[in-house]
Design goal:
Blueprint: E1 7-8, E2 15-16, E3 53-55, H1 56-76, H2 79-104, E4 109-111, E5 124-125, E6 132-133, E7 162-170, E8 180-189, E9 192-204, H3 209-231, H4 237-261, E10 269-270, E11 272-278, E12 281-287, E13 291-295, E14 306-308, H5 315-321, H6 327-332, E15 352-357, E16 363-367, H7 369-372, H8 377-386, H9 390-403, E17 410-418
Antiparallel strand pairs: 1-2, 3-4, 5-6, 7-17, 8-9, 9-10, 9-11, 11-12, 12-15, 13-14, 13-16, 16-17
Helix pairs in contact: 1-2, 3-4, 8-9
Length: about 425
């Protein structure tokens, strides 16, 4: 059964998604002019426990760590800061009581009431043009090439795409030191280009320790990837995920060792969000609350022209997940900077990885939280869409964040697939 406004193939009668230029069942060309791109939606956001719930015990441990943090602040603070710490402990204690009661009642998971927007999923890459297709597609929806041996469709040359990249970082209006590290660069061999690395790291720790941690993360990741890619390029998404995860874990090891070796750097750490764009796929690794977005004026998912690809490893993000806070409340919450996963703070760390198919017009935006605490998702997406220059878009986003207070360092990378 087709939905209103959907199309069917004139040759075999199979359903066609909007924007498909070739039937994924029989390979016949459609009447579409190919100006738009097929958008596919998965069921929901991926989570460690299930697609629609979080572990109560895991969330309880996160909230308990928040109570411990604010108790330390309470002992070390005076005046308004002490009142803020006391209020935070009171709020977290209420949440602890609620979670503990759920455990007493035998509930091991809690339902998610808010989740990241669904994004385009196209797991089967075309061997000719690299475009992602549905898992059961027989012919590529972009160039018509057969996806399986024995197909008869004649491959059409795909449009040539280039990746236009701009990166900017700014100290902001309140900080004296920029502890962010922002990097973009290409990996090449004698045979040609392998891919483009985009990286944002937001350091923490005080006494310049955050600056050291973010720079060390960037240098280690680049060195690890350079060495690994010189030995061979991964053949599939799992291979890329393993490569990026190992690079992030090596960075965590170096920062943790450095933190223990220098007294002023004790406890230092950093977030890390990186994307390695190879061909028409972006492979992403993520730890902390820096972010990666996918933006396209034609739409990328249920949320419209933008989608957040990474999940913040922060307390307020988990409270938004279960309906304790709204996204608007989380943006100004006093504990919004409290993250429970970062590089260098522990000897081991979990690294989130994912891959994303890229279509013409897609833009990847990576940023530190100094941008998103001042600029809403819809605003940053609109600026990227309206501004044809990636460099100018970065400058406008940073200027807007500074205009609204610039409470933290601000880093932005924009990479757009252009024909």
């Amino acid at each position: 059964m087709t939905t209103p406004g959907s199309q069917t193939c004139a040759s075999c009668g199979g359903p066609l998604a909007n924007g498909a230029r070739f039937c994924p069942r029989c390979g016949a060309p459609t009447s579409d002019d190919g100006s738009s791109d097929e958008v596919m939606l998965p069921g929901s956001r991926r989570l460690r426990v299930s697609s629609d719930s979080l572990s109560v015990r895991e969330l309880l441990a996160v909230v308990e760590s928040g109570v411990f943090y604010w108790r330390q602040r309470l002992d070390q603070s005076e005046g308004v800061a002490r009142e803020q710490a006391a209020a935070a402990i009171k709020e977290l204690s209420r949440i602890l009581d609620s979670l503990a009661q759920q455990l007493v009642e035998g509930r091991e998971t809690v339902r998610i009431t808010s989740r990241l927007p669904s994004t385009r999923v196209a797991p089967l890459a075309c061997p000719i043009c690299g475009r992602g297709n549905r898992a059961n597609a027989k012919y590529c929806v972009a160039c018509g090439s057969p996806m399986r041996p024995g197909g008869t469709a004649v491959p059409r040359p795909p449009p040539e795409l280039i990746l236009a990249v701009a990166a900017r970082t700014d100290v902001g209006m309140a900080r004296k030191v920029n502890e962010d590290t922002c990097y973009s660069g290409e990996f090449t061999t004698a045979d040609g280009k392998i891919g483009t690395l985009l990286l944002v790291a937001d350091g923490m720790g005080g006494h310049a320790a955050g600056e050291v941690a973010s720079q060390l993360a960037s240098e280690t990741v680049k060195a690890e990837l350079r060495e690994a890619l010189s030995a061979g390029v991964p053949l599939d998404d799992d291979g890329w995920h393993s490569l990026l995860r190992q690079a992030a874990l090596r960075a965590n090891e170096r920062i943790y060792t450095q933190s223990r070796a220098m007294g002023s750097g004790n406890g230092m750490g950093t977030t890390l969000t990186l994307a390695l764009v190879a061909g028409r796929r972006a492979h992403i690794a993520h730890v902390g609350d820096s972010r990666a977005y996918l933006i396209n004026p034609a739409g990328v998912g249920e949320g419209g022209p933008w989608a957040q690809l990474t999940a913040d490893h922060s307390l307020v993000a988990r409270l938004v997940d279960i309906g304790q806070l709204t996204p608007e409340q989380a943006r100004v919450h006093p504990q919004r900077n409290m993250i429970y996963r970062s590089l260098g703070t522990d000897p081991a760390v979990d690294v989130d990885t994912l891959s994303q198919a890229l279509a013409p017009g897609d833009a990847l935006l990576l940023c530190s939280d100094g941008l998103e605490i001042h600029v809403e998702d819809s605003e940053l997406a609109q600026i990227v869409i309206d501004e044809p220059s990636e460099s100018r878009a970065c400058e406008r986003l940073i200027a807007l964040a500074n205009q609204r207070g610039g409470k933290d360092n601000i880093s932005v990378i924009i990479a757009r697939m252009r024909t």
